[in-house]
Amino acid sequence: MNNKMRKIKIISFLLSFLISANILFAQSIDEGKRFLYYERYNSAKDVFNKLVNANPNNIDAAYWLGQTYLGEEDSISSKALYQKTLNANPNSPLMLVAMGHIALLENQNNDARNRFETAISLTKGKDYNVINAISRANVDTKAGDAVYAIGKIKTIPENKRTAEIWTTLGDAYRKLIDGANAQLAYQSALAVDPNYARASFMIGRLYQTQGFTQELYYMKYYNEAITKDPKFAPVYVWLSQYYYKRDINKAKEYLDKYIAVADADTQNCYYQASYLYASGQYQQTITKANECISAGGKNPHPGLFGLKAFAYDKLGDSANAKTFFEMYFQKQNPEKLESGDYAKYGLVLLKFPGNEATAAGYIQKAIALDTLEENKIEYITSVANSYLASKNYNEAAKWYTKLFSIKKNVTKTDIYNAGYNYYRGGNYKATDSIFGLYQQKYPEDILGVYMRARASEGIDTAGVLGLAKPYYEKVIQLGEASTDTARVKSQLIVAYNYMIAYYYNVKKDKATALSYNDKILAIDPTNAQAIANKAALTAPVKVKVQDNKVTPTKTKVKGK
Predict the structure, then answer these.
(1) Phi, psi values for residue 327, rounded to 5°
(2) Can you give the pLDDT at residue 215?
(3) Average pLDDT over the chain, rounded to whole?
(4) Which of 144, 246, 276, 280 is the most buried (most CB within 10 A)?
(5) How many CB atoms lie within 10 A of CB 356?
(6) pLDDT for position 152
(7) Where are the alpha helices (DSSP H) in 315-445?
(8) What is the distance of C-alpha 69 from the center of its chain?
């Protein structure tokens, strides 16, 4: 073989090797991204770490390793990696975007925007992966600008958008609470890749936020995601959580399916402890959570501390519940705290005097965060009941009043609970206001005007102003017109007694007082007070002579 032929064969071999290496490299990146897509963070880290260790300047591997850290809520490791890689590659568009992502997490919006725009300028807006990374950073962070993300994705021609890019667009619309456009984007992702399970899953998420009435739709899309890709772990988590308070056996079934396709990590341990809690095994929950915390080393799942707090609360150990809620709120990413966390912590704090303002703040946050009316009602009612238990009636009434702005259909009971507890707390002006609303909504119901009369008596304690008189007159009108005398009897007697006392003591009109007393005897002939009043009102006036003066003796007549 001559030298020329040998050189050709060597070059051919090197080209073949380089092509194979590039294919292997691409497959490795894709493999890691696939693990990340499945939220298998340990597996994704293994792949990307190997690539970064082999070549610290492997920009794609470093970027995706940092994204994996962020998936695990480890922004410190992500920032350190991105900063190190950017220092070695200062003109890397993708690393500029990566550090922009970190800047958004740190609420440095201007710095983030400058980095994003520099990256776009360096690529002349033609690197669609860079644009998608910018958009994803704005979607995934609280400080991110979803409108900016949408604008950037729209610079990518539609025929160049991958299923992943379309889904990022859907996520951006979802962040803006624009469900219609979000669903269109997710459906476009499915048009590009019919088996892209995350798009189906996210459509299901859209429907679930609309409440239980949309169950048929979101369950359809969750099941569709499983059919498209049985390895897509996130859908099993959501289904397990959905059944968590509805059917614990079904929740466990989906949890087992999740564990079968997920990495073994502290999150799985957390889910197993959650199942014990949902099963009512509270002491076992605490034991399992302690095992998981120990196994988690320096970074146990923050939710484990929350589980312990909830379990201790169920066991009636408020002191430990308070302690672990404090730890949970310190360790958990604030963006991961849910409305139920705030609500329960607030209720626990109410058991410790001096924490009322903090507790109310947490519960108000729970109400603001939750999208479901039924949950908001539960939070408000729980707080009101807590105040009732401690006989703090005015605070209970304030919380019952909050239902008026939450419920689509405020009931008689809702108004009554607010008004009556104000009455029990001695706040008669508020009582009158609330039952004024009751009377307006239910003008033929005797209860509203009756309670306004009682509130007026509370204000006019001496009865000399007659504030309650027009209300009691209305009580009498409604009561006497009622065909169900037994139901209104007690209110009528109170009203008649008020009139007896008012006409006798204020107006000095014994005849009218007597007429109202007779009305009581007509519906309750054995009423002891009415019998005594009858005798007093009809007794002859007695006189006594003293110092040549004639003085009538006062007749004693009792009101209500």
Answers:
(1) -65, -40
(2) 79
(3) 89
(4) 144
(5) 15
(6) 97
(7) 318-331, 339-349, 356-369, 373-389, 393-402, 412-424, 428-441
(8) 27
- With left for phi above 0 and alpha for psi between -120 and 50, is residue 365 left, alpha or beta? alpha
Q: Has residue 556 got a pLDDT over 50?
A: yes
Retrieve residue 184's tokens. 């269109």
Least confident of 128-142, 316-330, 369-383: 369-383
Q: Is the pLDDT of residue 143 over 70?
A: yes
Orientation angle between helical segments 163-175 and 146-153, nearest 10 degrees: 150
Chain-centroid distance of CA 165 in Å reads 30
Q: Is 556 within the bounds of a domain?
A: yes
Provide the residue range defining the domain that includes 475.
Answer: 454-560
How confident is the model at residue 97, as a pLDDT?
98
Q: Which amino acid is at 267?
A: Q
State which amino acid sits at residue 455. A
Residue 22 one-letter amino acid: N
- pLDDT tens-digit series, residues 441-466: 999 999 999 999 999 999 998 888 99
Specify which of 210-219, 297-306, 416-425 reaches the highest per-range mean pLDDT: 416-425
Q: Tokens 């027009």 — which residue? A: 470
Sign of CA dihedral 414, 498, 472, 463: negative
SS (H, E, C) 164-232: HHHHHHHHHHHHCCCHHHHHHHHHHHHHHCCCCHHHHHHHHHHHHCCCHHHHHHHHHHHHHHHHHCCCC
Interval 310-368: pLDDT, tens: 999 999 999 999 999 999 999 998 888 999 999 999 999 988 988 888 998 999 999 99
Distance between CA atoms of 325 and 320, rounded to whole angstroms?
8
Residue 65: pLDDT above 60?
yes
Count of domains observed in the chain: 1
Mean pLDDT of 467-479: 96
Mean pLDDT of 6-27: 42
Domain membership flag for residue 467:
yes
Angle at 231 between CA 292 and CA 195, to 5 degrees: 145
Identify the CA nearest to 309 among candidates 277, 336, 338, 334: 277
Helix%, strand%, coil% for the chain, nearest 5: 75, 0, 25
What phi-psi label fits residue 124: left (phi over 0), alpha (psi between -120 and 50 degrees) or beta? left
Q: What is the pTM of this model?
A: 0.61
Please indicate, yes or no, if residue 491 is contained in any of the structural domains.
yes
Burial of residue 179 (CB within 10 Å: 0-12, 13-18, 19+) is middle
* DSSP-based three-state secondary structure for 549: strand
Give the rounded distance of the alpha carbon of 227 from its chain centre: 30
Asked whether 58 and 128 are in contact (CB, 8 A), the reply is no
The answer for residues whose C-beta is within 8 angstroms of residue 514's C-beta and 6 or more apart is 534, 537, 538
CATH number, domain of 511, equals 1.25.40.10
Question: 255, 201, 262, 196: which is closest to 231 by C-alpha?
Answer: 262
